[in-house]
Amino acid sequence: MLSKVPGFKEFEKHMKDSSFSYNSCEAYKKDIDDFFIFIRYKPLNEIIEEDILNFIKDLKKVYSNNSINRKIISIRGYLKYFYKNGIIDSLPMEKIKNLPPEKRTLEILSSEEVEKLREVMDDSPKEYRDNIILDILYDTGILISEVLDLRCEDLISEDYKIITQIKGVKINKISLDSSLSERLKIFIEEKRDSLRNKNTKIFSSVSRQNYRARLIKYGKRANLNREIYTHMIRNSVLKNILDTEGAHVVKDRMGYSTIQNTSLYSSRNTQQIKKIYMEIGIGDE
Known about the structure:
By secondary structure, this protein is mainly alpha-helical. Helix content is 54%, strand content 4%. The chain has helices at residues 8-17, 22-38, 49-59, 65-84, 111-119, 125-140, 144-148, 152-157, 178-191, 208-221, 230-244, 247-254, 270-279, and strands at 162-167, 170-175. Helix 2 (22-38) packs across helix 4, helix 6 packs antiparallel against helix 9 (178-191) and helix 6 packs parallel to helix 11. It starts with 7 loop residues before the first helix and ends in a 6-residue tail after the last helix.
């Protein structure tokens, strides 16, 4: 419970003032909350190195080194803020280093698996919505956060045929195929009002975390023998673009500022392709 975390409101203001992205703020919140639940909300000035080491030991039971490192970074940033501002006299994380990073494997969904996910969703408003989100992700390769930021008025003004992706100062216009365009129109005009939508965002009735949980449920329903997450869909799209159109299209389509050694993309060497996927962050969940 974040309301019980000492000094959290002050740190939350610091994150906003420092222009942390929404996703970074949410990750920090969860990591910090998990840590303080583990140490039973000890006061800041009573936290010692052993508390953090015990927390890391507990995390190792269920998390990968990469996930644990993210939590270490969050806790370090939190405590360092109060140390710099003189709230605490020592930094209990000073001697704690990140764990050795684990090699990431590139996980993608095959077209057959995507079709199986589609098939297990019915026409109820929620599952109709989830199916459309799946198709937007699979057809465009944009991030789930970008899908959930789409607004009704923008789509309607484009006659349901174009979605707008904003990458920093860059605006990408992405065309939708006629079938997806028509289904989006049906959702907005006929089904959306039956869901709890808080604003003009098309899919405000579902959060990023909630959609992931629902996708896992559909994966089980479709008898896919692994846990499904949204970035697997993005990986699939980018791999298809890479194989058919080249690295420069990946860069332009997905809004990356640079891609190193793009000549390796044209080789079809799987290990080289995976290496560059990792360099530009396609494999990050």
